[in-house]
Amino acid sequence: MSEVTVRFVGSGDSFGSGGRLQTCILVDGPGIRFAMDFGATSMVGLRALDIDPNSIDVILLSHLHGDHCAGVPFLMMDAMLGSKRATPLTIVGPKTTASHLDTVREVMFPGSHIMEPKFPVTHREIASGDDIEIEGLKISTVEARHTKTTNPMAFRVEVGGKVVCYTGDGEYTDALGGLVEGADLVVAECYYFDKPVNWHLNYPDIHKLNAKRVILTHMSANMLAQTDNVPEECAYDGLAVNV
Q1: What is the pLDDT of residues 47-78, one digit of tens each?
Q2: Residue 73's closest CA among 42, 46, 47?
Q3: Dihedral sign (CA 44, 46, 52, 57)
Q4: Do residues 172 and 208 lie in contact, with contact meaning Cβ atoms separated by under 8 Å?
Q5: What is the pLDDT of residues 87-98, one digit of tens each?
Q6: Whole-angstrom Cα distance, residue 129 to residue 142?
Q7: What is the pTM of this model?
């Protein structure tokens, strides 16, 4: 087994609760660096940590809400115009990911549709329930119970002999419980502390995640107020852990 490092470039929710950046979880394994989600503020977070965006080999997108994917167009524009990326990039996400990201880029950068990257870009669209291997990563998915039109998924990734799971956004389901069973690390959304909020994983269900280690992220102000009162590890921007 090799050491795997997980860094929370952004640990916040959609609305900047607690002054946190939107979701971007960077994972370093043997010979691979990948991001799980890439929210609109991800480039800011990477620069603040002095991490080169061009060092990311693969981006895994759990669903198509902006706080989880809207940083990709900024990365692409920087790669084409600023940093002149030369290395390949693979973007893995649910169905319609490629067309969605093209639309978002054109909305934010009108006229950019005429630009073509000079580095290899591969889009791989997957469905819930798929088991695939990309760049040495073994990835399994289940459907997440979140906004249906975002095609939401949760991930289980085998890297460097370790298993890292990411819930994305979504309520607890038996499928999610099965996906994370026995994982070395689960990065778990924990949106609200003391009541269920539809379409999100909330603190009352965290104890159902049977894994070796759980780190909570994507917390609203309600949950952030409780981080000193719960036994689970709670993420913050810049946190890095070894798995």
Answers
A1: 999 999 999 999 999 999 999 999 999 999 99
A2: 42
A3: negative
A4: yes
A5: 999 999 999 999
A6: 5
A7: 0.97
